[in-house]
Every structure is written in structure tokens, then in C-alpha cells.
Write a structure and sequence with these properties.
Length: about 325
């Protein structure tokens, strides 16, 4: 099979095409003939040597989400059969023509979404559902502020929030990205200056914040959260060690949490997948849900896909097609 790999950490140019042996599924795994693979920021961190795959997972083939057709199943797999179309969350190895996935990390392709474009769903869907709705406890009628609303996770968070009856806000750095977020149903696009966030959307205005930046935005976050608000971190691209006003956290009874997904157990991911199927899929299959795929590259152009993601000059999701 063809696969995108790298021999040593570096910039996007280290990614290259190689022939690899098709993997064999374990007892609780399925082998997927990949139609498309999603490109995510952890793939870039892995390529740079800053985010290795978990033990036992291929280390030199990035890729955390795929869509395709089940080619074969392990001896203990009961739910899935050869020939079924799925999208799947994987711990690595997705930039290849075949990949194995734990049976509990697979989901059917949602109605109204093509099998190719379903590759854009798993990473954002698992991340948003767990952090916004489970950890953040977002409810209908509540306000949520979403950083990076024009990206893959942000565009998923905006749409699921709006379709669930919540009110999403975001910020962007360009007119084009603001227009894109508005097309997804965001209530308002706010100024990207962390100091001005205190004025717009304003103090005590948000029930939940989904933050991928960290850094200096922590003070604005604590100010715009309502009492008993929830601040959920999913990345810290602008800094991991900001100053924290603990007294403000105490006075407003704020909840600060966060999570990573890749290293979680298959049992956790399987339970999360079931909750997603039961509660998030009706939102995905709503006719108002918009396709998140905006950039498609052939597998052999993975380097260009990484450069685009690193530039931050993109909308929605980036995928690689086989």
C-alpha cells in the first residue's frame, strides 16, 4: 500500500510517499480501505517530533481520522462486516491506503455526507462532543464562545451548538473567515484582540468557552464567563503557562477543565462513540448541517496540506484523498 511517512522530525518537506505492508487487524479491529484521511494539527506536531503516537501505534505515518470501506474484520468483531462504509478515529497511520481501527472507534457514514467527506468528521466530532457537551455541559439557550471558529473543530462546534439550541460566538482575524463563520450559524464574530474581548461579547456573557489558544486569553476568558461558567481547553497554541487570577475563579465559581483525546483508552472512545451516535448524529444528519470539507489534496501532496494548515489561512477541514 502507499503511505505518507517521514524519517526524522522536520518541516513539511520531510513527508514523502512510501510503499508499506498492509496491516492486519487485531481481534477487536477492522481493516479499512481508506478513501480519504483528515488532516489535523496533532499530525503537524507529530511530524515535528513533539507529539509521538501512543505505544504500539505506527510512529512514522501520521493521520488520526479516516473514511472508507471495511476490508476485513478481526475474529472478535461482531458489529461490523466487510463492505460497510465507515468513518473512524485512529491513533495513527491514517495517511495510508489501508489502516486498522478499533471496532468501537468506528461510526457509520452519516446520511447526507459522502464517504470521502466523512473523513473530516471523527477527530472534530469526538473532540467537540466530549469537550463542549460532556465536559462543558452546554445546554440549549446557553452562550458558548469558540476560539478558532473557522477551523475544523471550530466549525463543528459552531454547528453542533447552534443545532442543539445553544448560541455560539467566535472571533476571527479576517473578514473572509468572519463571513464563513456567519454562514455556519454563529451569533456574532467578535474582535480577535484579547483585551477587547472583555468589551465584546462583554463581561459575564458566556456559559462555556472552548479555548484552543491559552496564553494571554486566560484573563479575558475569566472575565467574560458568567458565574458557574465552564472554561474548556483543547490546546494551548499561544502559551501553556499563563498567569491565572485564582481569586476570580473562586468569586465566580468557575470550572476550568480540558482534555486530550489520542491517548485515551479504547473503552473510553467506544463509550464516547456510542453517545455520539445516539445524540450527535441526529444533528449531523439535519439538512442544516453544512459540509466541513473545503480543501482536498491527493495523498502524495500531504506536504502541501500541512503547509496550508500551518499557515492558518484556511476554512473548515483539510483532507487527503486516496
Amino acid at each position: 500500500m502507499r503511505a505518507i511517512t517521514f524519517n526524522s522530525p522536520g518541516d513539511a518537506s520531510v513527508l514523502h510517499l512510501e510503499e508499506r505492508v498492509i496491516p492486519s487487524p487485531g481481534s477487536h479491529e477492522v481493516l479499512i480501505r481508506v478513501i480519504a484521511a483528515g488532516v489535523n494539527r496533532p499530525d503537524i506536531f507529530q511530524r515535528k517530533g513533539r507529539y509521538p503516537a501512543p505505544s504500539g501505534i505506527v510512529q512514522d505515518i501520521p493521520g488520526l481520522e479516516v473514511s472508507g470501506v471495511i476490508e476485513s474484520t478481526g475474529v472478535s468483531v461482531s458489529r461490523w462486516q466487510s463492505g460497510q462504509e465507515v468513518c473512524a478515529l485512529v491513533a495513527g497511520g491514517g495517511y495510508a491506503e489501508y489502516v486498522t481501527a478499533h471496532e468501537g472507534c468506528c461510526l457509520p457514514v452519516p446520511k447526507g455526507i459522502s464517504t470521502r467527506d466523512a473523513a473530516a468528521l471523527p477527530e472534530a466530532l469526538f473532540t467537540v462532543w466530549h469537550n463542549v457537551f460532556q465536559r462543558g455541559g452546554l445546554k440549549a439557550g446557553q452562550n458558548i464562545f469558540i476560539y478558532g471558529g473557522s477551523g475544523g473543530i471550530g466549525s463543528m462546534a459552531i454547528q453542533l451548538s447552534r443545532l442543539s439550541g445553544a448560541i455560539p460566538f467566535t472571533m476571527t482575524g479576517s473578514v473572509e473567515k468572519a463571513a464563513f463563520c456567519s454562514s455556519l450559524g454563529v451569533e456574532k464574530v467578535c474582535n480577535s484582540n484579547h483585551v477587547k474581548l472583555i468589551e465584546d461579547p462583554g463581561e459575564n456573557s458566556m456559559d462555556v468557552i472552548l479555548d484552543c489558544l491559552g496564553g494571554d486569553y486566560i484573563e479575558s476568558n475569566l472575565t467574560i464567563l458568567k458565574p458557574d461558567g465552564r472554561l474548556v481547553f483543547i490546546n494551548a497554541m499561544d502559551g501553556r503557562r499563563p498567569e491565572l487570577d485564582i481569586m476570580k475563579v473562586m468569586q465566580k465559581r468557575l470550572f476550568i477543565t480540558g482534555s486530550t483525546l489520542r491517548s485515551r483508552s479504547y473503552e473510553f472512545k467506544s463509550t464516547l462513540a456510542k453517545d455520539i451516535l445516539d445524540h450527535a448524529y441526529p444533528l449531523l444528519e439535519d439538512s442544516r448541517f453544512k459540509n466541513m470539507v473545503h480543501h482536498v489534496f491527493p495523498l502524495e501532496e500531504a506536504s502541501e496540506a500541512h503547509r496550508l494548515m500551518e499557515s492558518r489561512d484556511f476554512f473548515g477541514k483539510i483532507i487527503l484523498k486516496m
